[in-house]
Amino acid sequence: MAVRARPLTLSSARLSAARRRWWRQAFEGWLFIAPVMIGVLAFYFVPIVVSLYVSLTNWDGLTTADWVGLRNYERLFTRDRYFRDSLRNTLFYVVGHIPLTIGLALILALLCNRKVRGVIWFRTAFFIPVITNVVAISLVWSFFFAPRSGTLNWFLSLFGIGGPSWLSNSQWAMPAVIIVSVWFGVGFPMIILLAGLQGIPEMYYDAAKIDGASAWARFRYVTLPLLTPALFFLSITQFISSFQVFGIIYVLTGGGPANATSVYIYYIYQNAFQNSRMGYASAMAWILFAVIATITFVQWKLQKRWVVYD
Amino acid sequence: MARLSRPLAGRGSPRPARTAVQFRRLAVDLVFYAVMTALALAFLAPLLWMVTASLKPEYLVLSVPPDFLPRHFEWANYAEVFNIIPVFLYNSFKLAFLTVGGVLFVNSLAAYAFARLDFPGRDLAFSVLLATLMVPGIVTLIPLYIIYKNIGWIDTHYPLWVPKVLHSVTACFLLRQFFKQIPQELEDAARIDGASTFQIYWRIMLPQVRPALAAVGIFAFLDSWNDLFGPLIFLNTLELQTLPVALKLFQGEFFSQVNVLMAGATVTIVPVLIIFFVAQKYFIQGITMTGIK
Known about the structure:
The complex is a heterodimer of chains A (310) and B (293).
Chain A: H1 2-5, H2 12-54, H3 71-78, H4 81-112, H5 119-131, H6 134-144, H7 151-158, H8 173-185, H9 187-198, H10 202-210, H11 215-242, H12 247-252, H13 264-274, H14 278-306
Helix pairs in contact in A: 2-14, 4-8, 4-9, 4-11, 4-13, 5-9, 9-11, 11-14, 13-14
Chain B: H1 2-12, H2 14-53, H3 58-61, H4 76-84, H5 86-116, H6 122-131, H7 137-150, H8 158-166, H9 169-180, H10 184-192, H11 197-208, H12 210-225, H13 229-234, H14 243-249, H15 258-278, H16 280-292
C-alpha cells in the first residue's frame, strides 16, 4: 500500500509501474475470489431478494403471482392453526433436544478425556452416528420403535417397563424423534467440548488440588468456567440447527401422528413443495429467520453474564 | 491421606499399601470400562442391528428378543439390493466427486487470496461472505427452486453440486485459517524466483495445507452424500435420484422386505464409514478448528 502513496514524487515511468502493479494485484485478487463471489451473488443475494418479493405474493410456482402485501404474514399469525402447531412442536423439540444433547455431550467428553488406554475407540463409537446417513439411520430407528417387535421396548421390558407405541402415539412421537436426534447429534458437540477440555492447562488443576478442592469443586470452578466459550458456541449453533430439523421427521414420522411432529421446516416443505404455496412458505421462512436472528442476538448479548474469557 | 502415609508404610510393609491403591485403581478402571462399553454399545446398537438384519432371512428380522448375531449369512439380500441400486449409487458418487473436487479447488483458490494476497476490497468481500452464514438455508431454498425452474435446472444434477461448490463459506473460512499460518518466507522465496501468483498457490501453498484440504474434502463429501432436501426437491426422475433418497422413496415398493431395506441402508452408510476411518484425524481436527477458532 505504501507503493500507492508515493507515486506523486516519482518519475512518470515508476509511477505507471506502481499503478500497473496496483491494478495487477487488484485484478489477480478478484480473479481468485471471483467464483466464490459469483456464488454468493447467484445463490445467496439474488434468491434473498426473490424470496422477499415472493413472500408478499400468493405465487404457486406456476401461474402469475398476485401481490398480496403482508396478508401471508397476517394469515399465518391469525388464522393458521397448523402454523401454531408447527411452532409448538418445534419448541417442544428444541427444549428437549438442546439440553439433552449438550448435557450428554459434556458427560461423554469428560469420560473420553480420561487418559487411559483404548479411550479413543469409545470416542469413535460415540462420534460415528454423526456421519451416518439420516435417511438410512432413521429407517433403522423406525424398526427400533416398533411397539411389539422393536428393540427399544424389548430393552425396557427387561426392567419391567411397558414401552409406548412410540411413533403411532401422538404423545410419544416427539420424544422418539428427540431420542434419535440426540443419538445422531451428540458426537459433534462432544468433539468440541473434548477439544475445550484438552485445552485447559494442567496447572489449574494442580493449583486447585493444592488448595484442597474436591473433584466436584475442581469441575465446578475450573473445568466448567473454562468450557463456557465452547458451550456458548454450541448453544448458538445448536439453536440455529435445531430450529431447522427436518430429515429425521421426514423419514420417521412424516409430521404425524395427528400432526404431533410437524415441525416448522416440515410445514414449510409441505406448503412449498407439496401444496405449491410458494408465497406462503416464503413468508414462513422469513419469520423463521427473524426468530433465529433474535435468539442469536439475545444469546450474544447475554454471553457477558456467563461466558468466561481468560 | 493415602498419599502421605505411603512412604512411611513403604518402609515397614510395602506390599499391603501398594496393593490397596492398585486395587482401588483397578476397580475404578473396571467401572469406567464397563460404563463406557455399555454406552458405546448403546450408540452402536442401531448400526449393529442394521448390518445383522441385512444378513438375515426375512422371517427372522423382527424377532423378539432382538438377535444381534446372524446365524447364517443371507447374502442374497445384497444381490437383490444390487439389482436395484447401481444407478443410484452412481448418482451419489458422481455428485460427491463433483462436489468435493469443486469445493476444494474453488474455495482453496479464494481462501488463498483472502489469506495471502493484498488487494482492494478484500476484507469487505470476506465479511460479506461470512455474513451470509446468518440466514438459514430454507430462506433461499424456495427462490432457488424458482430460479432453477426458469433456467431449466430442475430435474438435473446441477442444483445438487454447483451451489455447494460456489457457495461453501465454512470451507473457505477453514482453508483461510490454515493458509494464514504458513510462514511468509516460503512465498517470498518463490516470488523472487519469478513464480506467478497462481504457481505459488498451486505448487507452494496448496501442498502446505493438505490436512485442511482433507478435512474440507470430507465435509464436502458428507454434505453431498447425506443431502436429503436437495435431491428430494430438485429431482423428479427416479433414475437421477441419489441412494439415500431412493431408499426412502422406494421403501414400500422395491424394498418391501426389511432385510433388503437394511442391506440398502448398509450400502448407504459403508462408504462414509470407510472414508471416516481412513481420515479420522483430519476430520476431528477440522471440527475443532471450526468450533474453537
